[in-house]
Design brief:
Layout lengths: L20 H8 L3 E5 L2 E4 L1 H20 L2 E3 L5 E3 L1 H6 L1 H4 L5 E4 L5 E4 L4 H11 L8 E10 L14 E11 L2 H21 L4 E5 L9 E8 L5 E5 L6 E3 L20 E4 L6 H8 L7 E8 L2 E8 L6 H8 L6 E2 L2 H8 L15 E4 L8 E4 L5 E6 L9 E3 L18 E15 L1 H6 L2 E3 L5 E3 L1 E8 H11 L1 E2 L2 E2 L10 E5 L5 H16 L4 E4 L5 H11 L3 E5 L7 E6 L6 E4 H15 L1
Helix pairs in contact: 1-11, 2-6, 2-11
Bound molecules: adenosine-5'-triphosphate and magnesium ion.
């Protein structure tokens, strides 16, 4: 391809709409353009990378015996109503009506439709195991679309679904997808961690996420360098850790704390460390209210709590007027004593002694509180977020935490959808059995953002060869110089002949502009044809090299081809 013909409106300035590196660079390198919140167009360079990512995924899925098909994105409501997810998705689902007032949605994920397809099309149980997949656009009206295509409202997902006769079959299908995912993310050049994930209150027997560690990731990962254990925050179990408290069985005291609402303010007021306090937070769980307690230096893990409570919708913080109604106090003074809603306490809370809690009275706290003497929680369980220094549940060594970008998710669904929609098969003895399912997603568009987050420098992207829009570039420094122009064209033809996906920068621009663009776009290797063209000498430089090296044309072409072929 010729740079002179390509639509690459690169930007020198960092667009103000972008907060994270991948988003900034994708805009600057003219990969994407924003149309509206969480909705992006793909310009030629970005689309070319996207197609490469899709192709890698496709090859590995096919190699794992998965069959590609394509479903519509515009979907009638019925299948989602039958599974119950028409309501469960809530505001995240884009819903619309046709001219006859019939309900439709834009597909957020396709379990129902694949199940329906198998019900309609599979004639005999002998066709199982079967794994079907598609690479298709998904729609989710995210509460906080952000970071460009990292969390968008329209995005490309690869979603696969496996269908097996029994659990053992599912285990095998799942393992095949697990292995395929490892190959895919390795080929995409991602440094990834596989974590145990929460499979939700709704069932499912196992689930893992493929995470790319990155400070901009929105998921928390707990991992252990000693034994390799890794789990996401939702799943990572937390054992109570010991702390020092005041000795003895001290008498309960109500203390005026007029200006102290938060743990920080209370620490300042009492002069105790924050583990001496317990936080009581009120939540709305579907249509009822609950209170949750953790030690003052901890955070509540809302997914663990939700699973424990068993509610359908995500937990929401109780509205301030409800906090006032339930506690008879302003926000900031809630506590378990005398509270008339179920109290869920973290495991650590029951190990605390002589601690401080809100008194359900504006401007007051209780001190020297002791569990079972002053109040008894209705439920005691692990409901907190794991932190650095917690112990590994596998080997007991200290856990580390990091932020991660979820690029893939594999999930043993079991019979949730086959039960709901009636996907059964008759075996040879005439018995009816329910088909056992798994589902497997990859955020195709998100993978590109994740790859950029892991590979960039001050000058731009450093994309892996496998997904860079072009593998290599030939740059003619001065296209008005015939010797340079002709040699650049010759090298370009040769590289194409050798199967390299190559770009020629034949623009009549200053050399500096061309180099800046090639660096920004992250072209993995380039040959620059300059003043020494007449002597048959060119410069060869990989994107990661500090400096270019002078070489003969043949040497440069060989070096480039070797590098590209090795790193594809
Ligand atoms: P998240 O927790 O990031 O919202 P999810 O768990 O809801 O994701 P899944 O339903 O597991 O997502 O979807 C499969 C994959 O699709 C995810 O692993 C992720 O890579 C990708 N994905 C999900 N939501 C988005 C989005 N809004 N924008 C881009 N990619 C997404
Ligand atoms: Mg997920």
């Amino acid at each position: 391809m010729r740079m002179s013909k390509l639509l690459v409106p690169t930007l020198r300035e960092v667009p103000s709409e972008a907060e994270i590196t991948s988003h900034k660079l994708m805009l600057r390198a003219a990969f994407i353009r924003r149309l509206s919140a969480g909705i992006y167009s793909w310009l030629p360079l970005g689309l070319k990378s996207l197609k490469k990512v899709e192709q890698i995924i496709r090859e590995e899925m096919n190699a794992a015996d998965a069959q590609e098909l394509l479903m519509p994105a515009l979907l009638p409501a019925e299948a989602y109503q039958a599974s119950g997810r028409w309501d469960v998705f809530g505001p995240s689902m884009f819903k619309l009506k046709d001219r006859y007032e019939r309900d439709y949605c834009l597909g957020p994920t396709h379990e129902e439709l694949f199940t329906q397809t198998v019900i309609n099309e599979v004639r005999s149980y002998k066709e199982y195991p079967m794994t079907l997949y598609q690479i298709q656009t998904k729609y989710r009206d995210e509460a906080r679309p952000r970071f460009g295509i990292m969390r968008s409202r329209e995005f490309v997902m690869k979603d696969a679904y496996s269908f097996d006769r029994d659990e053992k079959g599912l285990d095998e299908s799942y393992k095949k997808m697990y292995d395929a995912y490892c190959r895919i993310f390795t080929r995409l050049g991602l440094d990834f961690t596989i974590v145990d994930a929460d499979s939700g209150a709704m069932g499912g027997s196992g689930s893992q996420e493929f995470m790319v560690k990155s400070p901009v990731g929105e998921d928390g990962i707990a991992y252990c360098d000693a034994c390799g254990y890794a789990a996401n925050y939702e799943k990572a179990p937390c054992a109570p850790t010991a702390k020092d408290y005041l000795e003895g069985d001290l008498a309960l005291e109500k203390v005026a704390t007029p200006d102290a609402h938060t743990i920080e303010e209370l620490v300042g007021f009492f002069g105790y460390e924050n583990h001496m306090f317990a936080k009581t937070i009120l939540y709305k769980a579907d249509d009822k209210y609950i209170a949750a307690m953790v030690r003052g230096d901890r955070e509540i893990n809302e997914v663990k709590l939700k699973n424990l409570v068993g509610c359908t919708d995500d937990l929401e913080l109780a509205e301030p007027h409800m906090v006032r109604e339930l506690t008879n106090a302003q926000v900031g003074f809630a506590g378990p004593i005398g509270l008339d809603i179920p109290v869920y306490a973290d495991l650590e809370v029951v190990e605390m002694k002589n601690f401080i809690i809100g008194a359900n009275d504006t401007g007051y706290h209780y001190k020297n509180v002791n569990v079972n003497r002053d109040f008894t929680p209705d439920f005691v369980a692990d409901i907190r977020v794991v932190t650095d220094g917690d112990v590994c549940p596998k080997c007991g060594k200290p856990i580390k935490t990091a932020q991660g970008i979820e690029v893939g998710h594999i999930f043993k669904l079991g019979t949730k959808y086959s039960d709901a929609l009636g996907l059964t098969y008759q075996d040879d003895s005439g018995n009816d059995n329910v088909v056992v399912m798994g589902c497997y997603g990859i955020g195709v568009t998100r993978c590109i953002a994740a790859a950029i987050e892991q590979n960039y420098d001050d000058n731009g992207m450093i994309l892996p060869v496998s997904i860079a829009p072009y593998e290599a570039a030939v740059v003619a420094v001065n296209v008005k110089d015939d010797a340079q122009k002709d040699l650049a064209e010759e090298i370009y033809r040769e590289l194409k002949k050798r199967g390299i996906d190559v770009l020629i920068d034949d623009r009549d621009e200053r050399a500096g502009v061309k180099f800046k663009d090639m660096d920004l776009i992250g072209i993995p290797a380039r040959i620059v044809v300059g003043k020494k063209a007449a002597d048959g000498i060119v410069e060869y430089k990989k994107r990661t090299d500090e400096k270019a090296t002078d070489m003969t044309v043949a040497e440069a072409v060989d070096a480039l081809c070797e590098f590209i072929i090795e790193n594809r």
